[in-house]
Design goal:
Helix 10 links the parallel strand 4 and strand 5. This protein is 62% helix and 11% strand. The protein has 384 residues and is an alpha+beta fold. It has a 5-stranded mixed β-sheet with strand order 1-2-5-4-3.
Length: 384
């Protein structure tokens, strides 16, 4: 750090906040300032985690506050549009598939049934993930969003992908005979389905644009799942149309069976990608490296911090993140100053990074080398 010790102390005194947070001893030479804030904190915090006069965040329940709830409202509308479209399409496809004896159409019906069930999962995710924190879940229920998204991915895999592959294999083994009227009915049903799925996809893409577009807008697993489902549905209906048309022209069921197999493979791939993302978030995914780097730089820029020995981050929900840092302070700070400095640094992080609503600072005066070799820094006991 640049500047003399007296200059550092002067800067520290002028920057201190009048409020304080409890500092809990964790061993010789260490003190831990626990300082969570914002809306995910319960009304009555568990022992050892009470704030020290911090400004409360949003009281909307769960992470994200009003902004997050506004985004959830738009996502809920998008999910409901997709649910209604999928229910209507599933009935039409199933009826058309039975009447026409079309494996591709029955595969698409299974796809729509799976999508309808998944929309129910996503609605549950939106509702349950916004529940306020309590004594049993002090970090809130944000990860419910990831859990229900994982169930949606499993539904796509089992009810959509596996059934479509089964229909394709059965068609290749046993063949399928269709009347001309069956072809016509099937093509009409698929045409209507393509229109409905297209409207639902446009609604989802409209919300993506409203939220800034790109990958950042798709960080919400509910919206990401709807976009993936609708995009896959449009492509799947197109494959079914092509397969049925070629079957009608050539009289060879292999075209329709191949379309069914292709739809199944597509659904399995989409389910794998969605499930992998949900799994990573459920088991404790770290924040984006660029964001972690910015947090580390802000900590290093504090006049009272001599070095940042370790930094851990973990996504707790859509708009909630845990930050745990082990920092070495400059010499000469008494215990009261350490308390005030810890609270001010925590507030500084919360203002700059609103999603960092759970901040824990482990203040130590141990040598840097010893701190880096500690179990918390190396991850032997799960981090700081």
């Amino acid at each position: 750090m640049s500047g003399t010790s007296s200059e550092r102390e002067t800067a520290a005194r002028t920057a201190e906040d009048s409020a304080t947070a409890p500092v809990h001893a964790t061993g010789p030479g260490t003190a831990t300032a626990h300082a969570p804030d914002n809306g995910t904190r319960p009304a009555r915090a568990p022992a050892g985690r009470e704030g020290g006069g911090e400004d409360e965040g949003d009281d909307e329940g769960g992470s994200g506050g009003p902004a997050g709830n506004g985004s959830d409202h738009h996502t809920k509308v998008t999910v409901l549009v997709a649910l209604v479209a999928n229910l209507v399409i599933a009935v039409a496809k199933a009826a058309g598939g039975v009447l026409a004896g079309s494996p591709a159409l029955l595969s698409e019906a299974a796809h729509s049934v799976a999508d309808s069930l998944n929309e129910v999962f996503l609605l549950a995710a939106l509702r349950r993930s916004r529940r306020p924190a309590d004594s049993k879940h002090p970090f809130g229920y944000g990860k419910e969003r990831f859990f229900w998204s994982l169930l949606a991915a499993v539904g796509i895999f089992v009810m959509g992908g596996c059934f479509s592959v089964f229909q394709g294999v059965e068609a290749l083994r046993n063949g399928a005979e269709e009347e001309f009227s069956g072809y016509v009915a099937g093509l009409i049903v698929l045409g209507v389905a393509l229109l409905a799925e297209g409207v639902s996809l446009l609604r989802a893409l409209h919300q993506v644009r409203r939220q800034g577009g790109g990958l950042s807008a798709l960080r919400d697993p509910a919206l990401r799942t709807v976009v993936a489902e609708d995009g896959t549905a449009v492509l799947g209906v197109t494959l079914a149309l092509v397969g049925m048309a070629l079957h009608m022209v050539t009289g060879q069921v292999v075209w329709e069976a191949s379309a069914s197999l292709a739809i199944g493979a597509l659904l399995v791939f989409v389910a794998y990608r969605l499930g992998r993302d949900a799994r990573d978030q459920l088991i404790g995914e770290a924040a984006d490296p660029e964001l972690s780097g910015r947090i580390r730089e802000q900590l290093r820029a504090q006049p009272e911090i001599d070095s940042v020995e370790a930094l851990f981050t973990m996504k707790m929900g859509l708009d909630s993140m845990l930050v745990a840092a082990r920092v070495d302070l400059v010499p000469g700070l008494d215990s009261e100053r350490v308390e005030k400095v810890a609270v001010r640094i925590k507030r500084s992080l919360a203002r700059t990074f609103p999603e960092a609503d759970q901040v824990f600072l482990d203040v130590t005066d141990r040598p840097a080398g010893e701190s880096r070799e500690s179990p918390a820094a190396t991850g032997e006991r799960g981090g700081a």
